[in-house]
Design brief:
The protein is mainly α and 185 residues long. The protein has a domain of 97 residues. It has nine helices and three strands. The longest helix has 22 residues. It is elongated.
């Protein structure tokens, strides 16, 4: 279940909709539809889902003063300054939702240029220098494409399938946290 309620305001306190499955239904859905159950990491998965679908606005902040050559020759993690909840008028930022849409809808340069035009940096640069604006727009497109490549990977989130009681016992043992009054027998 993914929590897609708004964080504040109308609907934020709405009861989550849940669905229960029998063991047989879960096995069938796992084999036919790729169903996965999250034992640990639900909050992380929900955060990723909310960022990619645009429920929460999350921006990839590129390092200052990167060039198109830097983007082409660097790994994504070498371009990352950090993540923020707003874009910047000082550096290239890419909204994670936009990079995800780029994968889903195969956006062309014109569509990416339109997304860049809505960024604070684009609006500021248009007031000063068309040449600098165009350079940063190219960097934006390249960073967005590099970021979207991350979403094309087979495993954005790693999972382990537990199919036996022995496997479930093992996972309990792994996550068991002893304290001073308990001993493992």
């Amino acid at each position: 279940m993914m929590d897609n309620r708004p964080r504040k305001g109308k609907g934020s306190r709405e009861k989550l909709k849940t669905k229960s499955y029998s063991d047989d239904e879960m096995k069938q859905l796992a084999n036919t539809k790729g169903l996965r159950i999250v034992l640990d990491g639900q909050q992380r998965c929900t955060s990723i889902y909310r960022a990619l679908t645009g429920i929460d606005k999350v921006y990839f902040y590129a390092k200052e003063d990167i060039s198109i050559e830097d983007v082409k020759s660097s790994l994504l993690e070498d371009l990352l300054e950090g993540f923020q909840g707003t874009d910047s008028d000082e550096r290239v930022t890419v909204r994670l939702e936009d990079a995800y849409i780029l994968v889903k809808e195969s956006l062309d340069d014109d569509e990416l240029n339109f997304k860049f035009a809505n960024m604070k940096l684009s609006r500021r640069l248009l007031e000063t220098s068309q040449e600098e604006h165009d350079k940063k727009m190219k960097v934006y497109r390249a960073v967005a494409r590099k970021l979207s490549d991350l979403f094309k990977k087979d495993k954005l989130v790693t999972y382990y399938l537990l199919v036996t009681a022995e496997a479930f016992s093992l996972i309990l043992l792994i996550f068991w946290r002893p304290n001073s009054t308990q001993t493992l027998i």
